[in-house]
What does this fold into?
Amino acid sequence: MRKLKFEDIEFNVTEEVFDYPPVYIEPGILHEPQTYHYALSILKTFNDDDVFIDIGSCFGLFSLMIQKGMAIAFEPSPENAAILTRNILLNPEKNIKLIPIALADKSGINYYIKRSQLPGLTKTIFGEGDLKTVILDDFKIEGNIKMIKVDTEGHDNEVLLGSKKILEKYHPIIIIENLPADWLLDMGYKAK
It folds into this structure.
């Protein structure tokens, strides 16, 4: 276990997080630092009833930044989910729930996880395999969904298509790896 400090918050992580090059080197996160700064600025505004949905959570670094409210971390890779589980256990004061499944635009799409030698570099392959996707709209989530982060290696818009009811009801802040689809922009979302 090691302490990871980002801006003014600290949390515990497993040593495996530091094996994924380059996630973190003192004094800060090297992988997508602007995204982490932006996400943290929003997470700092959370109240106890606010919810952060972290899709493609990997090791849960975004979820671990939560100070108030709850994070729901979706991570389909068994290897990444195992590291995320250990990170959650190392931070019992944080309200983080792991759901180890892939989200998509339709429930029931077959998928499998293509493994890599390094944790964090797995890929979800859709259309093949024994596992089945679900859509975010099928989950009953208590609280105010304030922010959704989607980093699913090119599958981001499909995930958001399966989240239309949640997006229309809560109109959360969205952090997305890919450019948003036209239908999302038509709902009033602006790329950040």
In short: Helices lie at 33-43, 61-64, 78-89, 156-161, 164-170, 182-186. Residues 56 and 151 are 5 Å apart (CA to CA).
